[in-house]
Design goal:
The chain is α+β, with helices and mostly antiparallel strands and 420 residues long. The protein has 2 domains: 247 residues, BirA Bifunctional Protein, domain 2 (2-Layer Sandwich), CATH 3.30.930; 92 residues, Rossmann fold (3-Layer(aba) Sandwich). It contains 17 helices and 16 strands. Bound molecules: histidyl-adenosine monophosphate.
Length: 420
Amino acid sequence: MIQLIRGFKDILPGEVELWQQIEKITVDLFEDFGFSQIRIPIMERTELFKRSIGEDTDIVEKEMYTFPDRKGDLVTLRPEATASIVRAYIQHKLFAADPVQKLYMVGPMFRRERPQKGRYRQFYQIDAEIFGVASPLVDVQLIFLLTTLFSRLKVADAQAHINSLGCPRCRPGFKAALREMLMSVSDRLCPDCIRRRDRNPLRVLDCKVPSCREALADAPSILDHLCADCRQDFDAVQQSLDRLAVPYVVDKRLVRGLDYYARTTFEIQTGSLGAQSAVAGGGRYDGLVKALGGPEIPATGFAIGFDRLAEICGLDVENLLDKPQLFVAALGDRSQSLAFEWVCRLGQAGIRAEMDFSGRSLKSQMKRANRLGAAHVLIVGEDELEKGAAILRNMETKEQTMFDLARVVENIKQIFAGSR
Ligand code: HAM
């Protein structure tokens, strides 16, 4: 038997209902905050991701599914959505009508990481981006949106972590200080970090190798190197979070795994997912629109790991499963063919009805109705057809009522009106 690819997964009925509910609650909230949906392709030119995420990141160095298409052009299955949304924003000149655009998307991403709990090679993100607003207040709005969403989804243990990554004016000073510190612990760094120390020292801060993490315990904090503007900006973020009563921790180690960030970055972390603590991550990326060939327009955003969110979401799946409202237990050929008609017409009218097609005994049909969790069972045999009336059994209360078979679809519609 051919099995699915390692790190990929199926989301089966029973689980999918939870995903649908999460997506519905999320999209409703995003739309209340003025976001519109955008749909972007699953594959882009490799160059797009290299230039936006950065050549020295784990994603670009090791994790992308990249291959030449049949003409030899290098293409990549998207490892994230921000780069594509920025490309679309520039390519379709969305800024021309109004530079302020709030966009969201939901869909699969691909990263060839080592699979483990909460980490997959195809995973899903719920992504939101705001273009055209430089104010740090929108960063706060994004964090507020995330914490509101997580509480609606009954996520018990989630905490916002925030940091500032400075700007092109103050970051070089921090990088120099960091590089100097890294020189002094070089013997404890992994080969990747030795290379990154010289090219892109910030990346060393998010290395997952334990010896590197230990060596970096006393690394300088970027917060001590912020310029006056970045400091003011980060103070404003904290004050505003305080005013909105959003709890957070300032986390100087939070550098995010992508190169495009500047100033405020954030993650929502949880203790319930083992090593994969980030359920959502994002931040400001003011230079990216320009770097990808667009005008100088600020931007900020986040992505939620949908798979991780589904794992820690506290909604009750049992209640979400859509059970049949009616099961028609039909005995005999004539009843079966009438039942079939009713079931079709009821489905058309928005009432979920089921029947058994194999002509089994009443007992086994009742068993099936039970297993499906049907709310009511209509029992119809030759006698009932003769009399023009049948028993409608409420499976919860066990109450049985006589049911007129003359206008089944109409009667059922009337009985169930408003019960869904
Ligand atoms: P990211 O931190 O790389 O950011 O990913 C965001 C979230 O996607 C993570 O916090 C995690 O929950 C989930 N995630 C990432 N990799 C995996 C995986 N292999 N398996 C399961 N879940 C995963 C970004 O992607 C940025 N584009 C976010 C952003 C949007 N920044 C600004 N705008």
